[in-house]
Design a protein that fits this description.
alpha/beta, TIM Barrel, 8 helices, binds iron/sulfur cluster
């Protein structure tokens, strides 16, 4: 699940399921200090990757199912109206300190860009936001592994997303064939990831998201770290604009069979990693 990047605190009586919606889920986000509206294109728990730290239960290999655009529109418009009228806060007893809509994130139980009608779904979301009586000055994020940029529908959707002020959080955990295969469970080359990153950044503002953890007690190997730094340096040399690199640990447990083999890296290790990244001239954000 890409929500590892969001660090949310679900309020007790309205989890994604109990809200009773198919595609839209509200969370009270400690990170954002308010409400995040999540959009899940993958209610079937399917992703084309299989990351060791993925938080999706019963994750299976595959793509997002066909999406009912009318339902998406109705759910999103309905939830935003409930938030606007404050009915949502009353119903779910949201603390006053968190009674503020902070962001909308396409972040679900799988890779959102595997949705065939991705462009139509983005257009639907754009229309809902456009039809609101007020302009929402909030972050709009797609959290993605960035692997489907070859599809015209994904490119069109990202381009539209950028028009409404959206950005893409692009997953980069490793930059060697071996490391990507081990951590992300996919045979994709670093070169292909670079091409995808270049396409994405051409269409939409991009932040890199990286999950760092130990495996069997060992932090990422030095040669893996070096390959990662080299990859980002090369991206910068190629003129690919990267807004920021966001580093995450394992604040929420993996739901994959390898979960017990994963652990946190030491503070010292993380500090050195951040310093190396900073020396490339990249903005770095460390999320606890
Ligand atoms: S890209 Fe990885 S973390 Fe994200 S949903 Fe797929 S398997 Fe899970």
């Amino acid at each position: 699940m890409d929500t590892e990047a969001r660090r949310t605190l679900q309020i007790s009586n309205h989890s994604r399921d109990s809200a009773g919606l198919t595609y839209v889920y509200p969370v009270v986000s400690r990170r954002a200090g308010g409400i995040s509206v999540g959009i899940n294109f993958n209610p079937n728990n399917a992703c084309n990757w299989r990351c060791l730290y993925c938080q999706v239960p019963e994750l299976r290999r595959g793509a997002a199912p066909e999406l009912d655009l009318e339902t998406l529109e109705a759910e999103l418009a309905g939830l935003l109206e409930q938030i606007d009228t404050r009915e949502f806060y009353r119903q779910f007893e949201v603390p006053t300190s968190h009674q503020q809509l902070r962001d909308i994130a396409i972040s679900g139980n799988g890779e959102p860009t595997t949705l065939k009608a991705f462009d139509h779904a983005i257009e639907t979301i754009a229309r809902v936001l456009n039809d609101l009586p007020i302009t929402l000055n909030i972050a709009k994020v797609i959290i993605s592994n960035g692997s489907m940029l070859h599809r015209p529908a994904v490119r069109a959707g990202l381009s539209r997303w950028q028009e409404i002020g959206g950005e893409l959080w692009f997953k980069l955990d490793r930059a060697t064939h071996e490391g990507i295969r081990k951590i992300n469970g996919i045979a994709i080359s670093p070169r292909q990831i670079m091409e995808n990153l270049a396409i994405a950044a051409d269409l939409c503002p991009v932040r890199i998201q990286t999950c760092l953890f130990s495996f069997d007690g060992q932090p990422p190997a030095p040669h893996e770290c070096q390959a990662y730094f080299d990859f980002l340096e090369m991206a910068l040399q190629q003129g690919i604009p990267i807004e920021e690199v966001m580093l995450y640990g394992l604040a929420r447990p993996s739901m994959q069979p390898e979960a017990t083999r994963l652990g946190t890296v030491s503070r010292e290790w993380m500090r050195d990693f951040v310093q190396n990244l900073g020396s490339l001239g990249l903005a770095v954000r460390l999320t606890p």
